[in-house]
Structure formats: C-alpha cells, structure tokens
C-alpha cells in the first residue's frame, strides 16, 4: 500500500505545482502587457548596444590576428635588408596570401620604399605611425574600396627601427556579420574608421555618402553630434535616436569602438521594428499565455523523464568549461614559450602557439605515436625523455618539471618543461597542460647566424658517436670562398660581410634542420650532413656549389666569388672531428690547386 500512496501524493503535488505555475504565468503576462510599450524600446536599445559590443570584441580579435601575422613577418625579416627583392620573395614564400588572408604583404624601408615599386609610402599616416612604434591602419589609396592597409614596425637585433611591414586587406575581411544574422535581426551594420568613413557598409536608403557623421549631420538626433564624436573618441559606448526625415524613417543607433584598433562598430535599427515587436506581443497575448501553459506542461514532463540525463549533461558541461578555462589561463601566463595540451582520452597533443616550429615539429596537432616518430627523426634519445614526461599522467602527479636535451636545427637545445595535470571527478587525469621553454645559451655567430666554431665542433663530435644507417653516411664538408679577399679589397668589408651572410643563408636553405653548419673563421665554413643516403651527397654538393656563384657590384666595378669544397664521407663511429677536418682540408687543397669554384668527394 505504501508505493501507490506515494504515487498519488506525488501526482497531487505535481498538479498543484502546475496550476500554481499557470496562475503565476498568467498574472505575470497581464502585468507585462501593461508595461510592454514603455519597456520594449529600452530593452531593444540595450540589446542592440550589447550586440554591438560583442561585435566590437569580435572585430578586435580579428584585427589582432591580422596584426600578429604582420608581426611574425616582421620578426622573420629583421636580419634581412628591407628594400630587397630577395626579402620580398621570402615573404611571399613563407606567408602566402591563401594562409594570411592578405591581398599582399610588402616590406618598406625607412624611406617607405619597396623594390617592386618606384614610389614611396613615407607620407602615409599608417607608415608614420609604425615608424613611431605603433600599429598603423589606413586606406589603400583614396578610399577603402581598394583595400585596408595594416602596418607594424620592423626592429633589428639592437631594437632599432629598420622599416615597416604593410599588409593590404579587402574591406570584406573586416566583415564580422552574416546574411542570416542580418535577416533575422533586421539591423543595418557598419564598420568605420575613427573619422567615421565607412569601411564595411550595407547600402540602404538612409546611407547617401561615405561617412557616418556626414549622414547623421542632416538628421535630428537625441544626442548632439559633437557629443557623439567626443564620446566615441574616448572609447565610450554611445546609443541615440535619429528622428524621421522626409527620405528616411526614424532609427536607433549604437556605436562602440574596437578598443585600440581605431575602428568603430555601428548598429542601426529601425524604430518601427520596436513598435512592431510590441504590437505583436499585445495582439497575441492570449496565444502566448496558452503557449506558456503548454510549455510548462512539456517542461515538467521532460524534467520527470530526463532529470538524470540532464544532471549528467550539466556535470560534463561544467567539466569541459573548467578544463577550457584552465587551459587558456595557463596559455595566458606562458604566451612567450611553447604551450601545449595533451588530451588523455584521445591521445592528441595540441600546441597553442607557433613556438612548436622551433622544435622542428611541423604540425600544431598530432598524436603521441606521430610525435615520437618526429622526435625519433630529430634525436632518438629524446624519445625516452618524452616518455618520462608522459609517465607523470600515469603517476597522477598534479605538477611535474623536467629538463632535457634536444638536437634540432643542427644544434643542441636545452629544454625546460613544466606540466599541470587536470583531474576529472573520478580522480583520473583528463588533460595535461604544459609549457616548453628553450633555455639554451646563445651559440650562434652574430654575423651569419650559423654556429660558432666551438659549438659546431661540439655538436659534430656528439653526432659522430653514432654510426649512420645502412646505405647512409655522414658527409663532412669544408667550404672556402674564392676571391673573398679581392671582394673586400675592391668593394670594401661591408660587401664582404654581406657575402658571408648570403652564403650562410644559402647553406641554411639547402641543409636539413638536423644538419650542422658552423663558421670556423673568416670565409671558411663547415657543413656536416648526418645520416644522409650516399647517393645524395654528390647531387647536394653540385646544387650547393652552383648556388654559391655570387657576383657583387657597387656600380663602378664588380667581383664574383665562388666556393671550393672538400668533402669526406664518414661511416665509422670512431672518426673524430680533427681527423675528418684534416682529410677534407686535403681535398679542399686539391680543388684549389686544380681549379676553384668546384668540389671533390673522397670516402
């Protein structure tokens, strides 16, 4: 008898709750009907203002991504001459338009010149802003229809301004609105610059010119136009009404500045839309009451049937939100080092910034087996270090710290790893969040960027401890520049330094990340190609030799330089640097004796 009694009691309580909910809904709607007209307009204004602020934040985020791209370009050319065809070609190769969304990206020197054009952009305001160390923005010509120009500063290694990187975007690139949103909200949406000139514009009957403030100047406004412009310039949200004119209906405006970007987001809504909404609610009040009653019944029924699933869903949702919040909190604290997350369930590692490329990894997301394969290619001994870090998940350590050595880009790197494990409600590790910091001291030659003599010898000796694979060899190459002294004597040491930089750049482009390049001194370089198929050594030497035929001219005279190379193939692990150097030097002498500008290989 106990169980049926409980069911009946529960049914009576539920019935009373439903009737009470219906009564409360009916009373609330009656009060709502009395105050609807007065409150609807204010609510719509607030909604439009809030929506405009959200769009301004979206625009800010979009602009920050475009500027970040240009700053990456600036860092990539800080050691290159700005007014150079080669620099411009490198930008085109490394930052293609289909990846960056820019129509074009150009490097300008301190005079505002680019090698592909005869003119100068030094009088443009965005160029002046960037020379002053700020982010610039302006028109690509006389109007924004031909594009929006963004610009950032380029600094050299001594933090001195050496030029400007400019990128041209189409106006549509700043459009943050979709057709479906426009149709649904019945709002007109714009993006303007700080002076009110339209960048993104929907042409409706109330827009007659190219400037927002010009269009507003002929209308009766609830806030003076001078006050509107002042408040916008002070980064303040502005909401106001524009009265009806002979040619246009009354409208509601909201203007919000995209903070720090010198852009304004504008939302315009017809006033009659507010009245139509109010009339609709009044006309269908009783229908709305009925719908709410039915909704209460449906909600109660769903609640009784799915309460368990709802609780599980909410719990899982909160868990994902907490994980995401923790992930981005760690990212914000460590944005100058390589940040990664490891999802234990999927086994995927996700790198959250571009620093992973410096470790020799070509993907932002990869699985543990793929990561191990890539690390194996760089340095096999590092795989064991990675397994030590991953073991902290099995050991359920809240925090973990580890330091290890990684060979990448032809040099030894000392890495410092910090990780934090995030646990689910069952006490299991759901995700690992961590940072990887390169704590290696500077071992590079300041002029050419390749390794110095001592660092290069140390790394080559380390590699020689292991033998190459079957059918593979280590190739030890000495490259000595021909006619280098003549270049210095005739054109000056500035041209000699430029030649050394050009030669180092060509070598770095030809070599793999794990190969070693070092400058022994003067115009003598050593290249060590590790674990290379023997059949590829000759084609590598031939290609490099051809690319090292360089000519320099100061207008009155020119000097050509080449490179003579002696090459030794090493296959035994007991071989030393000094032994390889002595043998390669003999081959180099033979090349110098029989004819410069070529190469000779000996096993």
Molecular structure report:
With about 600 residues, this protein is an alpha+beta fold. About 45% of the residues lie in helices and about 25% in strands. The chain contains 16 helices and 21 strands. Helix 1 crosses helix 9 (about 285-335) and helix 13 crosses helix 14 (about 495-510). The protein is flat, with a radius of gyration of 34 Å. The model is unreliable at about 1-5 (pLDDT under 50). InterPro entries: Diguanylate_Cyclase (IPR050469), GGDEF_dom (IPR000160), Nucleotide_cyclase (IPR029787), Rev_trsase/Diguanyl_cyclase (IPR043128). It comes from Blautia wexlerae. This is Diguanylate cyclase. Keywords: Membrane, Signal, Transmembrane, Transmembrane helix.
Briefly say what this structure is.
Keywords: Membrane, Signal, Transmembrane, Transmembrane helix. The protein is an alpha+beta fold and 603 residues long.
List keywords for this structure.
about 600 residues, alpha+beta, 6-stranded antiparallel sheet
Number of strands: 21
Q: What composes the largest sheet?
A: 6 strands, antiparallel
Continuous helix count: 16
Shape field: flat
Structural class: alpha+beta
**Average pLDDT taken over every residue:** 81
What percent of residues are in strands? 25-35%
**Low-confidence runs of at least 5 consecutive residues:** 1-5
Round the Cα radius of gyration to an integer and report it.
34 Å
Provide the spatial order of strands within the biggest beta sheet.
Answer: 12-11-10-15-14-13
Through-space gap between termini = 99 Å
Helix content: 40-55%
